[in-house]
Amino acid sequence: MKSRRCFAWLGVVFLVAFAAPGGSQPPPTRVAILVYDGVYNTEFIAPLDVFDHAISHTGGRLKVFTVAPSSGAVTTAEGLRILPQYTFATSPTIDWLVVPSGKNYRADVENKTLVSWVRAVGRKAKVVHSNCWGAFLLGAAGLLDGKQATTFPASLDEFAQLYPRVRVRRDVHLVDDNGAVTSAGGVVSYDAALHLVERHFGREVARKVATGLVIDWDARRSRYQNAGAPLRP
Q: How far is residue 150's CA from residue 155's CA, in Å, rounded to a whole number?
């Protein structure tokens, strides 16, 4: 009698565990936005803004956070001081790595600690994404070798010279080559983040996020489509 009751209770526990709401939900995609001294406001705030808005439109399927080389406040190029949520040592596993540009990008690509971390995380991430000069860090880490990529328009020649293994695109401001997403930066930083939302969560979700940010995504999206960027119809 006791054994039957035990099996009955085990069956109830089994059913509750698998019938519980969200029990079959996959873990959220963890999006890390790199912040470091000299980072430009727009290039990290734009993806942070877009992905944060996307959380409510995806049922919490995104987790967005900032990561810095060390603890303490980071001072941006414009003088904004921000406190990162994680450091290189404490960051959780990263699915999407976002690398914004910094005003000291020429020195940043010589920073072994910074480049090594980007390389290690980027090799495991499903998506690596840069805005503006952030592509130089991805290039220094070898994450764009053999791939199409772009960067700030005035720096395309320098980018091509430094990273000859990268197939530099000069005709578009947004490129997605199998998960390596690079943009020209500035306002296009919003477009690149919306592109990632659409690619992974669908066009309607991207539209909803864009509407909340007062962005005409259909108009902006078609601009990149016509320019040759690999955005799906």
A: 9
- What pLDDT score was predicted for residue 17? 39
The residue assigned the tokens 């499903």 is 126
Q: What is the pLDDT of residue 226?
A: 53
| Pairwise CA distance, residues 9 & 22, whole Å | 22
Rounded Cα gap, residues 117 and 32, in angstroms: 12
Q: 136 near 109, Cβ under 8 Å? A: yes
User: For the whole prediction, is pTM greater than 0.85?
Assistant: yes
> CB of 46 within 8 A of CB of 55?
no
Within a domain: residue 108? yes
Pairing state between β 74-75 and 81-82: antiparallel
Q: How many residues does the chain have?
A: 233
CB count within 10 Å of CB 45 equals 19
What distance in Å separates the CA atoms of residue 94 and residue 228, rounded to the nearest whole number? 29
> Which amino acid appears at position 157 of this protein?
D
Asked whether 127 and 96 are in contact (CB, 8 A), the reply is yes
Contacts of 38 (CB under 8 A, 6+ apart): 75, 76, 77, 102, 103, 104, 108
State pLDDT tens for residues 79-105: 999 999 999 999 999 999 999 999 999
Domain CATH for 74: 3.40.50.880
Domain carrying residue 140: 27-227
